[in-house]
Amino acid sequence: TETTSAKPLVVITGASSGIGEACARSFSKAGHPLLLVARRIDRLEALKLPENVICAQVDVTDRPKLVEAIEKAVEKYGPVDCLVNNAGVMLLGKVQTQNPEEWQRMFDVNLMGVLNGTHAVLPSMIERRGGTIINISSIAGRKTLPDHAIYCGTKFAVHAFTEQIREEVAQYDVRLVNIAPGVVETELLSHSTDKKIVDDYKSWKSQMGQPMQSEDIARSIMFAYGEPQRVCIREILLCPTRQD
Ligand code: NDP
């Protein structure tokens, strides 16, 4: 007879492409039951992961819906041991010309989305005295980059509150981790609407030879999570070797 896996539940937002997708594959391979969240449910289902994976069509800015999806997964698989707040958008632009709706969207997804996820799982982690929240920030949360003003604003904020919350919940053995990648080959750039800025980004990127792949980031996430609970990897900043 098959032995049932004792691995705990992991929740990954933005698992329908890029880093989130690679991360979902890695956690699934390690035997964890998963809750995968994104708006493109077809892309989540197309991953064809095992039966212990729940795919939920949820916009992370919709807090009640995110909470509901997490509650359902918890009913089935037990408490959330790891939340990967990965969903994000990068809409490059210049403040003086960019449509303010794009600023709003970045703050809503990159910041409010991460807070919504954190708020949904943290009380139970504190109560259980354990758990890990991994926030996918960016090198843009550590330094400024051309045409990244608002995106940097959201990612600097992610670093700040991740570190603040980490300090506050450390006494309960809950870990918070910032993962800050440089350039990764994903769909991220495809949502930027300013053609000149997109072209500038592409030529900057081409100078650095090989960008990172989503799997490279998934390895860092698995490493941080896989350390014993007594070790908190507070931050991993990783870039293509040739990135400036
Ligand atoms: P992708 O565009 O491939 O993935 C973004 C993911 O976020 C998708 O699964 C998308 O799913 C999801 N998403 C976007 N908006 C929402 C929303 N409102 N609700 C739920 N899910 C949402 O890009 P990456 O894999 O590169 O991005 C993942 C994270 O990595 C982001 O936070 C990004 O800022 C960060 N990052 C990326 C870098 C890079 O160079 N690629 C560098 C540094 C950090 P869907 O559209 O189906 O909702």
TrEMBL record:
GO MF annotations, alphabetized: oxidoreductase activity, acting on the CH-OH group of donors, NAD or NADP as acceptor
UniProt keywords, alphabetically: Oxidoreductase
Keyword set includes Calcium: no
InterPro entries: NAD(P)-bd_dom_sf (IPR036291), Sc_DH/Rdtase_CS (IPR020904), SDR_fam (IPR002347)
Keyword Chloroplast: no
Family: Belongs to the short-chain dehydrogenases/reductases (SDR) family.
Protein name as annotated: Oxidoreductase
